[in-house]
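ok so i was messing around last nite and threw this chain in just to see what happens. nothing serious, just curious
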Amino acid sequence: MTAAAETVSPAKAASGARRLRWPHYLLIASGLLVLLSLVRVIDDADPVTSSGTVSASLRLAVPIFLAGLGGLWSERSGVINIGLEGMMILGTWTGAWAGYQWGPWIGVLAGIIGGALGGLLHAIATVSFGVDHIVSGVAINILGLGLTQFLAGLIFDKGEAKALGGGPRQSPPVDPINTLTLPVLSGGKVGGWESPDWLGSLERHHWFLVSDLAGIVRGLTSDMSLLTLVALLLIPLSFVVLWRTPFGLRIRSCGEDPYAAESLGVHVYRMKYAAVIISGGFSGLAGAFLVTVAAPLYQDGQTNGRGFIGLAAMIFGNWRPGGLAAGSLLFGYTDAMNVRGGGQSVHALLLFVAVLLIGVAIWQGFRATRLRPEVVTDLGRRELRGAYVGAALSLVAAAALLVWFLMSEIVPGELVSFTPHLTTLLVLALASQRLRMPAANGLRYRRGEAR
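result:
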């Protein structure tokens, strides 16, 4: 056995372990849609793919995605940012403070600035002074919460702001950002003309697959906020900037090997500062979204841990924009099930997840059987055993969910409210084997020091 062969990962040695391309993702998405439609028909759970659920999922996923995108920019430069929650809180307060006075778009800009200031503080602590990244992030979370509570009582509970509806724990109302609806396809009004709603008509028939597809498309094209559209455009934009421009290459090189980047003339401190400030700006934008789209005002505790869920979505997405968007939609969808679907819809998802787990078990077993014996080293044997154990655990969990589905008709409300958090734990556990964070993420860097 050659030395080169010994270093080959068994997973990569499998003949089918090629990198997935867009056609593969489209095929997977189509299969999931068919399965979701089948589950809806079997359990008569129409909210599973209704346009209202899809619209709510997107609205709930956007702040998670924006916070996770902030974490992605920061960690790609090598700076761990668990202060996303605090930066989001700063964005909610500054966005509401400016929004109720000068309009929602000024509020969005102010929210970005508020979050960016939190990012600047984090960069000063971690990059310039070498403070532990976790300690700095926790401090910013505490500072953001305490500072906004103090400022809310100081500003919103006095004078004109109080007369407009402000108080010690909330701001005056903020005008919402305009929404878009595609006429003819998704209804709405154009001037005085009442537009047809073709997709809504198809959705109300509850046909297999056709109505589900109509509901999903209608949810994406009806009453979509302009800020939601901006957030969706940030997915390809972030990918292009980070993976297709010299600026993005410099940032990612700082996260992989800052000393090698320094030797090639990259100003590592400058790149880290830029990435962490941009990270704070995205988190502030997530906070501004909450006060201009999700709700028309600032309220104490409004972020409700979305910054931490955004961090989990970023890890689930393997530090890439596309995976982050998929993880955010998953968390947003389970949260929407809690808000709109209730116990009946979550009961249908038991069958959906059970079938998925069976598919995961089959895939892990199939991957393990296709390994070439000549490249299975001691490390490979451990991975092989891990694959079989994972397949066995997936089958056990699938069997338990199937029994639960068959023995019940509805999921208790207490478990329904816990569904988003349970989803967070499950997807991170299942995705842990394929994750690879930037090599120098969280490491202290000092210019000119030997590695």
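not much to say yet. Residues 46-182+195-340 form a domain with the ABC transporter involved in vitamin B12 uptake, BtuC fold (CATH 1.10.3470).
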